[in-house]
Amino acid sequence: MSRHNLAPGVTRREVWAWAMYDFANSGYTTVVITAVFNAYFVSVVAGNAPWATFAWTVALAVSYFLIMVTAPALGAYADAYAAKKRLLLLTTAGCVLFTAGLALAGPGELALAVILIILSNFFFGSGENLIAAFLPELARSRSLGKVSGWGWSLGYLGGLTALGLSLAYVSWAQARGDEASSFVPVTMLITAALFAIASLPTFLFLRERAAPQPRLAGRGIVGEAFARLGQTIKHARRYRDLRRFLVCTVFFQAGINAVITLAAIYAQQVMHFDTQQTLLLILVVNVTAAIGALFFGHVQDRLGHIPTIALTLIGWLVMIGLAWSAQGPALFWAAANVAGLCMGASQSAGRALVGLLAPPARHAEFFGLWGLAAKLSAILGPVSYGLASWLSGGNHRLAILTTGAYFVAGLLILTGIDVKRGRRAALRRDASRKVYRSSE
Fold it and tell me: By the 8 A CB rule, do 370 and 249 touch?
């Protein structure tokens, strides 16, 4: 991590502390959303009912809808009160608490499982937006891709750690003859504990550099947050390229979220993997995802943001074709590793591009809009997959094939984005002054 990639006054230790949050929270997405609890929800909690996959995707959709409603206002509040770090502490505590609570969801405990997954995922997603808003404060504009890639690759190592610990415990428990209803709850406790411990460097060493902004007279905290959000939406026309990229994000992230959310279910229902095989698959995919995030982070700063994202979307289409046609484990393993490379690259590249196109004084607010777009996609992708699976009588091959349309749409929208024009709009002083003047 070279100092010339970092903003003035930023130390390597601080960037490491920021990246450690990616390490800490990745265990949640890897173990709860991707590898373990999703398949457990379908097979054990919901008893393999025909509607089980759809129920899982709807539960996630509710949590994402809550994030959509609150994220931009939460970001506006964080900018106005220089409160990103304080809010991050709150969301971290919430996610850790409700992830540990998932250990209580056993066979038939559908209502409890749904409530806990909604709450844990809500706090996770809210924290994800807040930690991303620190990125433009830490990296120089020319190095946003590299620094984002460092964080995202370290995040996948965090996912690997949580998954590795879970796999070790599951292997030991299965050797004893334990059932999933006994060992899966313990993996939830492992994931929650790792999140809490690994996030400590973030709260010890990451600085809140933003200064509080002038208050809006006659409004409370909540009213002020929504008023600032209204100003952002009102002036969004000045940021046409950022706005277009947010629309693009909705589409390509819908496909990514469908794959992430349903990966373990697809592996078990179509490829007939058991829990141990599924965990091993996701573990290997996390390695390729870390490589993809790190490699493409450097490629992005050299090749350009748009060409890099376009390459990853083409890779996703290749993955869809491989997974759809796979009849045996070899081709499915190839598809999974292509997904890993593209997953790390596309998500890291998207975060870096938002950091480049967002107005400097409103990073948290615009990352809240990015979070809104990402969470809308997290509703569209998994729910459309679950609905396709349900309506087709459990045909997961058809369901995975339909997700390819999201990547095609993302590619088409991406072609109209001009990064240089978008960066100029973000830095234009007269536009910034108008925003602040209307705030007074």
Answer: yes
d(CA 221, CA 193): 33
| C-alpha to C-alpha distance for 246 and 368, rounded to whole angstroms | 11
- 47 neighbors 294 (Cβ within 8 angstroms): no
Mean pLDDT of all residues in 271-291: 81
CB count in 10 Å sphere of residue 8: 6
How far, in whole angstroms, is CA 106 from its chain's centroid?
Answer: 27
Q: How far apart are CA 269 and CA 431, in angstroms?
A: 53
DSSP code for 140: -
Per-residue pLDDT tens digits for 174-194:
889 888 889 999 999 999 999
Judge whether 308 and 296 are in contact, CB under 8 Å. yes
Give the CA diameter of the chain: 68
pLDDT-derived band at 376, boundaries 50, 70, 90: confident
Q: Lowest mean pLDDT: which of 16-25, 175-184, 261-270? A: 261-270
Q: Answer for the pair 70, 214: CB distance below 8 angstroms, yes or no.
A: no
- What are the structural domains, with CATH classification, of the chain? 11-207+228-439 (1.20.1250.20)
Neighbouring C-beta atoms of residue 48, cutoff 10 Å: 10
- At residue 440, the pLDDT reads 35
Q: Which two tokens stand for residue 372?
A: 């809104």
Angle at 379 between CA 374 and CA 381, to 5 degrees: 90
Q: Which residue has the tokens 């990966």?
A: 263
Q: Which residue has the higher pLDDT, 210 or 171?
A: 171
Please classify residue 333 by burial: count the beta carbons closer than 10 Å to its beta carbon, then call 0-12 exposed, 13-18 middle and 19+ buried.
Answer: middle
The pLDDT value given to residue 329: 85
Instruction: Tell me the HSE value of 266 on the side-chain side, using a 13 A CA sphere.
Output: 29
Bridge partners (DSSP) listed for residue 6: 139
Q: What is the CB neighbour count within 10 angstroms for residue 220?
A: 8
Burial class of residue 381 in the structure, from the number of CB atoms within 10 Å of its CB (0-12 exposed, 13-18 middle, 19+ buried)? buried
pLDDT at residue 429, as a whole number: 40
